[in-house]
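Final report, section 2: Outcomes. Of the targets proposed, tRNA (cytidine/uridine-2'-O-)-methyltransferase TrmJ is the one most frequently requested by collaborating groups, and we therefore present its record in full.
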Amino acid sequence: MSGAGTDSTKPWPESGPVVILVEPQLGENIGSAVRAMGNFGLSRLRIVNPREGWPNPKAVTFASGADRILDHAEIFPDLRAALADLNFVAAATARERGMQKSVLAADAVAAETAVRINGGEQVGLVFGRERTGLYTEEVSLADVILTLPVNPAFASLNLGMAVAVVAYEWFKLASGGALPFQQPDRYPIADKADLLAFFDHVERELDEALFFRSPEKKPVTIRNIRNIFHRVGLTRQDIATLHGMVAALVEGRRMREARTAARLEGRNEPRAGGETEG
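The predicted structure is given below as tokens.
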């Protein structure tokens, strides 16, 4: 989705876990991760020993407007320093590390994070280098391992993608899954009087058009037609449109019949509105 849906008047979420990027190699990847954070309500960023130094102009470009996250980003010399004030940490990795640690998916980490933040704890989500990920000793500093159900034949995610998936699960839980908008109800649902009047209209015209070829089957066919429209949940505007459609079809049929009759009688064909060619 493009930035067209951004509303700068909305408040920016300030709670949530800290995202920690360990030795990110490219400013572009930092910016992509920051953009994902902004999309899904995370605002606190810590960067451990960025390879290209800091600040990084490319990170600003790829953050696509989430500058406030970059402006308040904290830089640390190593992961231990970045974790020092946190109470609970999840380390993202795609590889089994042979450790006796709980292995949680992103939704489970989001649930655990919410419980701990509500209890006053500080939570961190740690993501490793683009090429090698986190080292085993770095994973050992975390309380749980965070991993995703990815294709085992191609399990490596781009840094921004990995942050996006985890941040999405967090924000979905934190927001109660509320979508930013719904289709507005512009027209009220048709009442039964409107619906019955339409049934009368369409059934009368179907009769005129000889649609009901079998008198024995006519009641069943009418019930089936009515059930089709009952399932749709028609609005008053829908009913008005359907009336117009039926009326147009009827008028078209009558015009064709009139032209056919005129040709058979050798007369000029009538025009719309009842006029004839002179």
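The radius of gyration is 32 Å.
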